[in-house]
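Entry:
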Amino acid sequence: MLRAPEGMQEYQRMAAHFGRDLVQLQHELHRMKVATKEQVKGMMPLRKDYPAEVPQAPDFLVSLRSHTVWEKTPVKLFCTVSGKPNPIVKWYRNNVAIEPLSAPGKYKIENKYGVHSLIISRYNLTHPQFTVRPLIVSSFHFKLHFHKGVLSCILFPLLSSIHPSKLEVTLLESFGVTFGTEGESVSLVANMVVVPDLPNLPPEVMWYRDDTLLMPSRWAEMSIGGGVAKLTLPHLNKDDEGLYTLRIWTKDGTAEHSAYLFVKDATPTVAGAPGAPMDVAVFDVNADYVLVSWKPPNTTHEAPITGYFVDRRKSGTTDWVQCNDSPVKVCKLPVHGLTEGASYHFRVRAVNKDGISLPSRMSSGVTAAEVESDVEVYVTIPDPPTNVHATEINKTYVVLSWAPPSPRGRAPVWYLIEKVCDSHIWQRVNTAVQLRSPRYPVYDMEDKKSYRFRVITVNKYGSSEPSEPTAAIQKVDPCGVPSAPRQVIASRNTKTSAFVQWEPPKHANNLMGYYVDASLVGSKKWFPCNHRPYKHTRFVVHGLVPGDTYVFRVQAVNAYGLSEESQESAPLFIDAALSTPSAPYDISLLNCNGSSMTLAWKRPKNTGGSKITSYYLDKREAESVDCCVFSGLVYIFNFWIQVENLTTGVFYEFKIQAANLAGVGLPSEPSKAFACEAWTMAEPGPAYDISFWEVRDTSVLVQWKPPVYAGAGPITGYFVDMAKKGSSDFVAVNAEPVGHCYLKVSGLETGASYVFRVRAVNAKGVGKASDVSDPVCAKALPGTKEIVCGVDEETGDIFLNFEACDVSETSKFTWSKSYKEITESSRLQCVLSSSKLTFVNAEKEDLGIYSVAVTDTDGVSSSYSVNEEELKKMLDLSYNIKHPIVPLKTELNYEILEKGHVRFWVQAKKLSSSVNYRFIVNDKAITSGYKISHDVSTGIIQMTIEHFTKANEGTYTIQIHDGKAKSQSSLVLVGDGKAALKEAEFQRKEHIRKQGPHFSEYLSFHVTDDCTVMLVCKLANVKKETRFTWFKDDEEITVDVPPNPMSGSCSLPIPMSKISSSEKMRIGGTSEMAWMQICEPTDKEKGHYTIEIHDGKKSHTRTFDLSGQGKWKLDFRNSVQMCYMNYLLSVDRGRVAGGLPDVVTIMEKKSLSLTCTVCGDPSPEVTWFKNEQEVVSDDRFKITFEGGKFASLTINNVHVEDSGKYSINVRNKYGGEFVEITVSVYKQGLRRPPSTAHCVCLPHQKYLNQLIYSLLETARPELGVFDRI
């Protein structure tokens, strides 16, 4: 860290002191002057008029002093002058006047209230020595030593007769760096305040381009008035490129503003053609001859220029005539054959292999006129010319020049030119051209041959003797293009510009200037930075993209063209250059205990492109001009300091200076006078350091630091007030105090500016409000983005990522949780230079608000709230990435095939061709012995065991590896293994059985209409020799008609006695009950009764004995038998086994699931109804029926409108059941209404059920599970 010397601080203090006090002194002197004048006027009514101002020689009130500074640090020099009229102050270096325009950005000259300052940026040890030579006041002679340099300040009187203006002019908004294209129109505008503003007396304004005063013309229009100075360039050409300066004469001297105008080439008519030449000028004007010169254009991606065409046009005409038949390679062309007395304009076009450029701007008009010389009326034959020599020599032409004869004779003269080469015979050069000018270009000269020339004067009276011949002249390029510039160095300037400097070429060869090119690193595409040769060896390149990296190169330019490119500069990251920070401001008092004060301040608005490392505090007693330096340092993270050793009851003023790597900045304005009196109030002191983050179009996050003085109790919260900029009507943002030091304010007006203040609260009340914050505009930065939460696809780590819309090379990302910076944490990983925050094993304790701020930017920041639902979602995704699985459609399963083979299989949702897997049986991997295969298209992996035995029982596992994904599924065949083994054995036997004659359908029966029981079976794979025999209780049955096995089926009829319905025996029933009633039974009705019930597939038969039973017994058994028949009919019908309530009460926006178990054979159909309307499955109403057993209706996000009567209808071909449920939905926030479900069971019904159960057990002991009904 560098700090300016104490001498510099002293002069800064004195400058600020005099700048503030001189205004008051001037007002006081003016008041005294007016009072004295009135007094004298009253005492001397007849007085002699004297001038209002007595001339006074310039004088130094505060002179310059020596300074010692570090190399490449800014230097500021101050002096105060006086004089009548106000003197002009000029600064000199080494006896040469300092002009800021000669070195843009190097020097800055200011004049405020008579305090003159010179600011030198980046002082260099290589500067030559400076001396002081006061021109007006010779008695003053001051020297400023800078190791190797001395600087001088010289005073000039401002003569009122030259500059009579008494206007005070203050420049406000002025034009900045401007970019244009050839053919466009550009206006440079500067706004100002003029006092007094007189319409008939505007300020005196002058416009300069590169130190050349501009005058109104067709190419430049100027206006001044209404507080606006304007320069309009109606038709841009590259001739207009340069540094434009507005200079305004004011009462105290001049006010200036400068900015660069860049003009790029217009689009050529032919692709690849070069840009137009510029700065066409005409020299050496004679009667029929002129010399035209121009500057070559820059070529970056175009082909090299091969030559130029020059066109001329007579004034008053529109036709352009080409002057040269073939392109000339040098940027000069002698044009002869002009008409004496005519005015001409000239323009130039460049040529390369792709085409011809657009024409340049035409030159100013010139008139071909004869050069005056002495005329002797008595002389007839003229004398010969003298001093014949070559003024221009190159490989294209040679220009001969001579002095006309004096005296030249009475008549007009012309000239003849002769040349001689190897022989001694002189040859006439201009045989067909009559020369009237003492200039002539010679083109027809052979290469590598020397020529001598002589000239003869001719008039109507005769010819003179030949002149003395010239020395030998050879057609060569004496200079050629310059050598390449050296040591190109690029450094930072602003966020969109760079400062490029270089060493001049070793061989300048009449240098015109330089072209600077730039290229993005890695692109290999160069673009021009300037389009008109720049004379100096340092240049500020504008229009660069912040955050990009560029390299630069330079070419030197002269009349012969462009030099080779220099070496590229080192890559430069575009960002603002380092400078000292601006002054802190708004010093406030946070606490005072009677002997010390705690102060805070607002950080500098400009940090100088570097982190502020420390602050310096100066203090003084109020009403005193002496300052003493407080030696303590205040680190950037605090922005407050406690000043000790103060005197109770004394008022103090303070100043703050900020320091960074570039040095110590300017001091702040003195604070208010603070009284050193102890604070004793019960309420808290003011909060401080209000800052703004996450600025959006309608919201902003306000942060602050808690008060240093807490008052009589701990601080319990804060109120935030806001007002629009310029208004003092503050309104409270929050109705209740917030317990933390931040608050997000919403509902702002887009584009409006607001100011805020904070008030702390404790048990005693609301404390003093903080200082009003700086205004903040509710408008998001262009390209603003928000934090994104995601999961790394490679590692599975959960992260927060922020893509900043603006970032510099020194920017860092500061992450915070609940707006407290994350420094060290075992649960979070973040790097200051990274835009990503990574969670380490995220858990519920990581929930909260996370924010990020990007340093060295204009408040780029964002926040993100991690809630429980989002965290669960991210954790699931993270687990799937960290532990990838192969998704399975079905788990490992088995099936028994026809031959008794057992197939184990699993199906994945997706498999790749590189999938690997293995089957493990009882902890042993299967390598051979079984058929194992897979199908990528279906995702099925299978293994087949042809002979499944008891030894194959156990645990079966399949392990799948597909890339990084894994999966495993197991199947245990221990309990179920016996069934599988039995089934496999059965299938094997069946397969063997079916190899010979066998039953394709086993024995079954049906009852015919005549009550005959028909036993039926079907045969397969029979032969003629096959024998079929019927048996009953292992005794062969002899039938009347032998069965025919070849028919494929055999039947045996068994006649039965059928009971018909009559008055004695009534038979009836319903869909759920069958019954028979014997009216007035007698002994004749004794016997065995049988009932057969057929369901289409099989028959159910029940027999009961009525022999020897009493009447009541018979009737009751008849009732029991009817109940039993009822069971037989209802056991296979569709019905609801259980699971549904009568009434359901639920709060809205919850999910309701109605689930029940159904049964029936065959599997029943299930239909749901709401208010007797069928419910269709959709996004909210989801109907499922799984395994033929479990039926459910799920309603997602229920509403009050979903209340009603729901029912389920379960039915198959044997019947069904209809069950109703009442659903009641109540609103959130209301108490749950009472719900009652009534189930009525009559007492006698309970005893009846028990009785039926016991009787059925007696009637059919095999029905031991009858209690499941």
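The chain has a mean pLDDT of 80.
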